[in-house]
TrEMBL record:
GO terms for molecular function: ribosomal large subunit binding; rRNA binding; tRNA binding. Associates with stalled 50S ribosomal subunits. Binds to RqcP. GO terms for cellular component: RQC complex. GO terms for biological process: rescue of stalled ribosome. Keywords: Protein biosynthesis, RNA-binding, rRNA-binding, tRNA-binding. Pfam families: NFACT-R_1, NFACT_N. It comes from the Bacteria. Residues 465-557 form the NFACT RNA-binding domain. This is Rqc2 homolog RqcH. Key component of the ribosome quality control system (RQC), a ribosome-associated complex that mediates the extraction of incompletely synthesized nascent chains from stalled ribosomes and their subsequent degradation. RqcH recruits Ala-charged tRNA, and with RqcP directs the elongation of stalled nascent chains on 50S ribosomal subunits, leading to non-templated C-terminal alanine extensions (Ala tail). The Ala tail promotes nascent chain degradation. May add between 1 and at least 8 Ala residues. Binds to stalled 50S ribosomal subunits. Belongs to the NEMF family.
Amino acid sequence: MPFDGLVMAAVRKELENELLDGRIDRIYQPSPLEIHLLIHRPGTRARLLLSAHPENARVHLTGRVRENPPSPPVFCMVLRKHLEGGRIREIHQRGLDRVLVFQVQSYNDLGEPCLKELICEIMGRHSNIILVNPDTKQIIDAIKRYTYAVSRHREVLPGREYIPPPEQHKLNPLELKEEEFRQALLEAPLETPVAAILQRILDGISQVMAREILCRAGLAQDLILDHCGEYEIVVLWQAIQQMAGAIARGEFQPSLVLDEQGRPREFAAFDLTHFHPLTRRQGSMNALVDLFYTAREEDQAYQSKKQSLLTVVRREMGRLSQKLSLQEESLAKAERAEEYRIFGELLTANLYRLEKGLSEVTLENFYDPEKKMVTIPLDPRLSPVQNAQAYFKKYTKAKQTREETGNRIEQTQRELEYLKGVETAITQATTVLELVEIREELEEQGYLKPASREKKREPEKPRPLVFTSSDGFTILVGRNNKQNDYLTLRLAKGEDVWLHTKDIPGSHVLIRTGGRTVPETTLAEAASLAVYFSRARESQNVPVDYTLCRNVHKPRGARPGYVIYTGQRTLIVNPNQELVKRLKA
């Protein structure tokens, strides 16, 4: 993980400057594995975040305020009892381990001063936040409690002795001797990548920092031990020594790497030069860590909401597909209605030739132009008249079934097409807000129960995507059915041009004309946008209908996003991602 021992050291150095002698005013626990401490010093207030999340464990200052549960969890109440009103006297790190200890001077039940230690162990899925009495070394409580059944090394329970995490037996770069380094390096198998060896033998070094050491030594990122000679070992040692010297002096260079889309990708306590030419942002270690994990948690929340909605929609689509199959099967059976009528007519016309007890009869079909013979099954228990009446009853029932089933099939197909459109909107959504709008729509349509426990979100005005064509026309694109309805039914003016992929679920696209004639270039660009933001994004030669907005109407009671239109013309265009980027810019 990016949060290595060096990042912890850089965070600790900044926290000492910001928090020492600060008073802990309030403590919150916004989520099961996250603690916020509000710390006050004269003239400044800070919010310290401690997380024991298996993927996002870390310690840093944050500017983000999280919503708290209605009633505080037990661990939060324990921390409030022992730490609120106390002052942070010391912050120390054990070597370059990812363990940070806050020593807090607080007061016991008798009002006497006493020391408490809040220990933050940042170790992936084994991360924990533990409150300890340093005098007795006993655990007061922990955000994660477990017994020897979970860990053979130690129990983390109130009243048990605090035992530090097991030693990693790595080499501390600040105390490392060259011969120790050589020996540890050369003990690895020859085919092992050097970056992996550095991470394994050096304390506080993550994989990304191991690659940075190789880069600063002027060596290849994929270098293996078998290709290392005396020169490579010497330059590696020198690069490690330079970094160790900077660590000892507290001269960190916090760095955050952004990917091509500007999203945080990696961070470290030193400048990550091996990520050139990607953008690298400098700043305080706490601020960069906060920025990285804020973006990561937003992305995780986005992916979770997206997958949850897709599961619901695809489950409903599967149910409807199965329902449609049964309905079509029922319709196929009902298609024999005309055959039953003919059988009844033939039996009625030939009653004089029939008698009770026959199981079948072969008669001339005078409805057939070729007058072919047809064999009609009979019930021997019924008279000829009763057999004819039975076929007429079957005809009436099959005819009704055919009409009703045809209507139901049409309704099922419309609902299935609607859900295909919703699925497209979910897969193409880029923000949590868009997913929230889609969830609200699914709740309104009865596919999801309203999230009554959550705080009701204030309705926001939909915000369609905005593009500018090569000719300077504004083009608006809806990203979901709520935005589509807002775009087409409220924003659009009669002279604006409306576009949509022909018979394919997708976004409503609007060209704001202001009464001007729309050039062919703008029309083609808007049509390409309509294809890109539709279910046909990966297709070629896609038909796109366009018409004036005055010709677009929504039927009464229709589902969100559904409209009918007249006077349309059709263009055949292809999606173009580069065009999307250019027009958006």
